[in-house]
Write a structure and sequence with these properties.
single chain, alpha+beta, five-stranded mixed β-sheet, 4 helices, 16% helix
Length: 335
């Protein structure tokens, strides 16, 4: 007989039986974690529901909702938006400088007040243009023109200027230079913030006022509490009664007004300083002739020639017009 060797190892079914016995006896499943993870992946691929408990899934859902809300608030790469407080206007919500006052100017813009030490200042100068009207130049302090941000928040020391001609707003200035057409008498330059409110000090707009009809060149300054004024008129000594009449009688210009037309057509009369000029005007209706800058007036009667003589003792550009019909008869250029 051949000697017998050791008995063969127990077959696999017997070990499976041991595991089942261990589970029934309350012993933890000895399967390693990687194997369980593999079983979980297999279950997902097979379409079996996520074995995670409900509380864990709810937490994940809340995190996803909060993340989506954050994306909506920020936008796709854009900046976050702001919303006005109910019942406030755009200028009240965006303004960040000064104190917004309930007072409004003639055009309906509210005043935004600053302390005098922080408020801007403006000085205006006007010179006659070679083709009529006035060229206006502004000199500002603690202020800069910001046309690129007009309509935005009111930031200290920024904004634009507005021109008021004879009390009516006519134009905006986004730089130091501007133009005023002929016929203007009083020019006011007012500084505004980017949100269109008016910079003010002690309840008074920051502005400068120039009387264009007084002198061919005028200027005004203001710190926000006072209005600018025109430069003083040059004094002219009246001729002595005993003085001999000038040897040169000067020039005579004859003008005829018919309806709304003037003959000869309006043009410019070139004069030298000190030269005498006589205007002989005939109108088909009652009116008043006015020479700007010299403050000379002449009543006109229908069909009756009227004569006005003056000495061109002031240099600049001066208009001759009628009050009632508003016709410009001619312009005097005195050099």
């Amino acid at each position: 007989m051949r000697p017998q060797g050791p008995p063969p190892p127990a077959p696999a079914p017997r070990r499976a039986g041991r595991r089942r016995a261990a589970v029934l006896a309350g012993v933890a499943d000895p399967a390693p974690a990687p194997r369980r993870a593999g079983l979980g992946r297999a279950a997902v691929l097979a379409g079996v529901a996520d074995p995670a408990p409900a509380p864990r899934r709810a937490g994940l859902r809340r995190a996803a909702v909060l993340a989506a809300a954050g994306l909506l608030l920020v936008g796709c790469g854009g900046r976050a938006t702001t919303h006005h407080k109910p019942g406030t206007s755009h200028q009240e919500a965006t303004g960040s400088s000064g104190t917004l006052l309930p007072v409004r100017d003639e055009s309906g813009h509210r005043l935004r007040e600053l302390p005098a030490a922080d408020a801007p200042t403006v000085r205006a100068e006007a010179a006659p243009d070679s083709e009529g009207g006035w060229n206006v130049h502004l000199t500002v302090e603690r202020f800069r023109f910001t046309p690129e941000s007009t309509g935005g928040a009111a930031l200290q020391g920024r904004g634009h200027a507005r021109l008021l001609v004879d009390g009516r707003e006519t134009a905006r200035l986004y730089g130091p230079w501007g133009y005023v057409p002929p016929g203007a008498h009083t020019l006011t330059v007012r500084l505004h913030a980017d949100d269109h409110t008016v910079w003010a000090v002690a309840g008074t707009p920051v502005q400068a006022t120039v009387r264009l009809a007084d002198t061919p060149t005028a200027s005004g300054t203001t710190s926000g509490t006072t209005s600018g004024s025109a430069s003083a008129r040059p004094s002219v000594s009246p001729p002595s009664p005993s003085a001999a009449p000038p040897a040169d009688p000067g020039r005579t210009v004859t003008l005829t007004i018919t309806g709304t037309s003037v003959q000869p057509p309006p043009s410019r009369i070139e004069l030298k300083k000190g030269e005498r000029l006589t205007l002989r005007v005939t109108s088909d209706r009652a009116d008043t002739l006015h020479v700007h800058g010299y403050d000379r007036e002449l009543p006109l009667s229908p069909g009756t020639p009227a004569t006005l003589t003056l000495t061109a003792d002031r240099t600049g550009l001066f208009e001759v017009e009628t009050h009632e019909s508003g016709l410009v008869l001619t312009q005097l250029v005195v050099r």
